[in-house]
Design brief:
With 352 residues, this protein is of the alpha/beta class. It is built from 11 helices and 12 strands. It has helices at residues 27-42, 58-61, 67-74, 89-101, 121-124, 141-154, 160-173, 216-222, 250-259, 276-285, 309-323; strands at residues 8-15, 51-55, 82-85, 107-115, 191-193, 196-197, 206-215, 227-236, 268-270, 293-294, 328-335, 341-348. Strands 3-2-4-7-1-8-12-11-9-10 form a 10-stranded mixed beta sheet. It has a two-stranded antiparallel sheet with strand order 5-6. Strand 5 (191-193) and strand 6 form a beta hairpin.
Amino acid sequence: MSAPGRDVAIVAFAQSDHRRRTDDLSEVEMVMPVLHEVLRQTGLRTSDIGFTCSGSSDYLAGRAFSFTMALDGVGAWPPISESHVEMDGAWALYEAWVKLLTGEADTALVYSYGKSSPGSVRDVLTRQLDPYYVAPLWPDSVALAALQAQALVDAGHTDEAALAALAARRRTDAAANPHAQVTGARPQGEYVVAPLRTGDCPPIGDGAAAVILAAGDRARELCERPAWIRGMDHRVEAHSLGVRDLTDSPSTRLAAERAGVFDRPVDTAELHAPFTSQEVVLAKALDLGDGVRINPSGGALAANPVMAAGLLRLGEAAAAVHRGDSDRALAHATSGPCLQQNLVAVLEGDPR
């Protein structure tokens, strides 16, 4: 939906250095420096924040209500107004945005984190599948992405050489991102599940991200060039993979339409595409032309901390607006197999 009545902006963004393993850190120890950094950028203290919302997954942590431990890194005493979504942090940002639109708060802290290294994330993600017909077959996340990739190849939308070139471009761009886990073009490697090779797949790793939202004049006080959220929407595909056209993403297109993406051209797009083939689907659904810079940060092919990668896309798009590298940016987040759930936001800077 478009923003009704009240202007809300992302005024600060911070992230961890994304690493293959963080055995030396607990979730709290991983999140705390990121929270301190995003607050430092604005000069705010925890007590100045009107609303706090987080995104994470108990399945990754292997224990119920694991997010309550991360609150130790926020500082929940004296009591704070707090919420949590069992989703990527992009959906936590959506909740915080709605909270600020209602006028119930003027500032919000949003953070998310994920540690994929302790277990097999490919197996963990099978718990998202239809429990009656699909999950008992145990297709993992890479196998399902390969099914989507093969459908694209069969339809003539791409081929393995094009996917390899796309992977090289993204990881080359990531060389300028000091937080990226994987940088620089490299050989595609062996097949993981055909037609996807190692280079077509995201790195497994741990990481965290945080943003601060502020409304109206408060945003201008906290940031020289706020990234105004002009619209944001999220949609979901049918749960059954068998009734979907995997070469297209109508939910992304509808979310983009409702968020106002097609009203005017964007110059930058941060797409949450963990697999090269998924970027092909998203670029088509969003009608991104050659003049749009796609994933200048390297995207999820450079760092893909589960439950934080979507918030990273929003943060990177906002940071591009803050720096003056973008005037109108698109940010996208996804969750579920084969781009099942999709969130799209439009971020704009003040005219220069």
